[in-house]
Design goal:
The complex is a heterodimer of chains A (327) and B (257).
Chain A (H helix, E strand, L loop, with lengths): L8 E14 L5 E15 L4 E5 L6 H8 L7 E6 L2 E2 L4 H7 E5 L11 H11 L4 H14 L15 H13 L5 E5 L7 H16 L3 E6 L2 H7 L2 E6 L2 E6 L1 H9 L2 E7 L6 H6 L4 E9 L2 E8 L6 H7 L5 E7 L3 H11 L1
Parallel strand pairs in A: 3-8, 3-9, 6-7, 7-8
Antiparallel strand pairs in A: 1-2, 1-4, 4-5, 9-10, 11-13, 11-14, 12-13
Helix pairs in contact in A: 3-4, 4-5, 8-11
Chain B lengths: L1 H17 L3 H24 L5 H32 L3 H6 L4 H31 L8 H28 L4 H14 L14 H6 L1 H13 L5 H32 L6
Helix pairs in contact in B: 1-5, 2-3, 2-5, 3-5, 3-6, 3-7, 3-9, 5-6, 6-9, 6-10, 9-10
The chains are: A alpha/beta (327), B mainly alpha (257).
């Protein structure tokens, strides 16, 4: 007999529009479509990434899935429970961790924060002490748990967040940019913790800005831009979508006006972007497969000062930029 | 049992959190002192003595408890929103109103200190010797009043879940409640149309019970009404908070942005 397992997260045409009103006498309202009908499914034990620029709709999507926001369209189920009609059942089984300094009680110690949330999340009294101890060990805060959170570094706070999110042993963990603002060592430890969680059977939905993090951790990635999913695949498949071409990177000290448009108009150029890095601007050009646009691009930069010129294979970041720019 | 444990642990941790600010601590030292000084001076100017002075002392101490709760209860949820913990409270698989009980009770507990401060200040600064005729009844009345004020604070705080600026409500009703609940003047001296409002506010019954115990009368009937009205706030809060949380999810007001 073939056993068909139901996806842990099922999202079908999920949408959310925010309405804001202003004015006292003559009230006017404005609508912002933050999420415009996204659909995807996450399997049990999967680490699913949601990747997108600021304002793309990542956090709004997560907040609808964990029942903090009501969708204005579509439907979603988490562990078989509808996020609107069965919000209480969803809350019992999911964990939510977000990045940044907020979400903790500064005047309490790390231990007291965990004790408080253990009560709130219904961890049985006989298990609570042991569970808190286990989690402090897991996130590397054992020995520092009696210090007040206001004295914690950002990395320590983030680890405490993770411990809080795991207190009630959630089957699905939602991580909303958990590594934001953490130093590289802390971020690496965090990735190891997330990997361990997935190995022990927790399903994870992660949003991140860091491409290497998504590349290293995620089984599948959905790229979201302007409230829509523009690509959904494994990291290697996403890279494959642009690996048939090459990427040219040139450090230019002052890109002249109109050059970007001229380069973009070249027949073999797929996309162009400019990033400021220190005093230089990095001109990144994606070329069609089998073509070399170096000479053509350099021709447009005639008279400009430039440094490093390299041609390389596309990364996940290139794939992401191309997908987002095309959206 | 589980609910009691939740309220107990959360109350203790909230109390711990609130008692760790030096600035808040200083204010809670000064506030009851201001109230007590104003009231005692008013009553002394009017040549009040005996039961009238005792009534004033009880009323001013209740003012301290109420002020500690009313001005901070609604603001406390705004603080939870600012520090990003409001969403985590809503995510907890518990009735939201239940999570507010320890929060407002911790404020009322801090406010209860004003009872001791007021009585001590009256004695040290104004030479008022107060004799409590029924100490046990008085103690029970204080505990029940603290609980009742905490429950009323919870009812006020609930609106802050949905409306980001509802914290101003607590400050707006701080002083009207002093009058309506008979903290300063007897409820019987208020206009007839105000009295039904006084009757549905639990602090009215709590202060009446404290005064009765202090004067050697039975406080139990007043305490019964106090518990009944406070419990009804719990029921109302349970329904209203569900609606407020649903509305906050619809209007995206649980977070700051």
């Amino acid at each position: 007999m073939v056993r068909v397992t139901e996806p842990v997260i099922e999202v079908d045409g999920l949408a959310r529009t925010f309405r804001s009103r202003k004015g006292l006498i003559r009230r006017s309202s404005k609508e912002i479509e933050a999420v415009r009908g996204v659909s995807f499914a996450v399997e049990r034990g999967e680490l699913f990434g949601l990747l997108g620029p600021n304002g793309a709709g990542k956090t709004t999507t997560i907040k609808m899935l964990i029942t903090l926001l009501l969708p204005t369209g579509g439907r979603a189920r988490v562990l078989g429970h509808d996020v609107v009609a069965q919000a209480h059942a969803v809350r019992r089984k999911v964990g939510y961790v977000f990045g940044g300094d907020r979400g903790l009680y500064e005047r309490l110690s790390g231990l007291d924060n965990l004790r408080y949330f253990a009560e709130l999340y219904g961890v049985p009294a006989r298990e609570s002490k042991q569970r808190v101890g286990e989690l402090l060990e897991l996130v590397g805060l054992a020995g520092r748990e009696k210090e007040r959170v206001e004295g914690y570094s950002r990395g320590m706070r983030q680890r405490l967040h993770i411990a809080r999110g795991l207190l009630h042993r959630p089957e699905v963990l939602f991580l909303d940019e958990p590594s934001i603002g953490i130093d590289p060592v802390g971020a690496r430890e965090l990735r190891a913790t997330v990997r361990n969680l997935v190995e022990t059977g927790t399903t994870v939905l992660l949003t991140t800005h860091y491409m290497f993090e998504a590349d290293e951790l995620c089984d599948r990635i959905a790229v979201i831009a302007r409230g829509r999913i523009v690509a959904l695949d494994t990291p290697s498949e996403l890279k494959q979508k642009v690996t048939t071409g090459t990427v040219l990177e040139i450090d230019v000290f002052g890109v002249p006006d109109g050059v970007v448009e001229k380069v973009r108009a070249e027949p073999d150029v797929l996309s162009v972007s400019v990033d400021v890095q220190g005093q230089a601007e990095v001109l990144t050009v994606h070329a069609r497969p089998g073509t070399d646009v170096t000479q053509a691009v350099m021709g447009h930069l005639d008279g400009s000062r430039f440094g490093r010129v390299i041609t390389r294979q596309p990364t996940l970041e290139d794939a992401y930029i191309e997908l987002v720019n095309a959206a | 049992m589980r609910t009691l444990r939740l309220v107990g642990v959360a109350w203790w941790l909230q109390l711990k959190m609130r008692s760790r600010s030096a600035f808040d601590g200083l204010l809670s030292l000064l506030y009851p002192g201001f109230f007590a000084t104003t009231i005692f001076m008013m009553f002394k100017q009017g040549d009040a003595a005996g039961p009238a002075l005792l009534s004033a002392a009880v009323g001013s101490s209740a003012m301290g408890i109420w002020s500690a709760v009313s001005t901070t209860a609604a603001f406390a949820l705004q603080m939870e929103r600012r520090q990003g913990t409001l969403e985590l409270l809503v995510l907890a698989p518990q009735p939201f109103a239940l999570l507010l009980v320890p929060l407002t009770l911790s404020m009322a507990t801090i406010g209860a200190y004003s009872m001791i401060a007021t009585l001590l200040w009256g004695r040290l600064a104004f030479g008022i010797h107060l004799t409590i005729a029924d100490p046990l009844g008085f103690l029970v009345a204080v505990v029940v009043t603290v609980f009742a004020i905490g429950m009323l604070g919870m009812l006020i705080a609930i609106s802050s879940i949905r409306y980001r600026f509802a914290w101003a409500l607590g400050s707006a009703i701080e002083m009207p409640v002093w009058l309506i609940c008979g903290f300063l003047v007897a409820v019987s001296d208020l206009p007839a149309w105000v009295r039904p409002l006084s009757a549905v506010l639990s602090p009215t019954w709590g202060v009446a019970a404290m005064r009765a115990a202090a004067n050697g009368q039975s406080p139990w009937a007043d305490l019964g009404w106090c518990v009944l009205t406070a419990a009804s706030y719990g029921l109302v809060a349970m329904f209203v908070s569900r609606w407020m949380v649903h509305s906050a999810r619809a209007h995206a007001t649980l977070a700051l942005s």
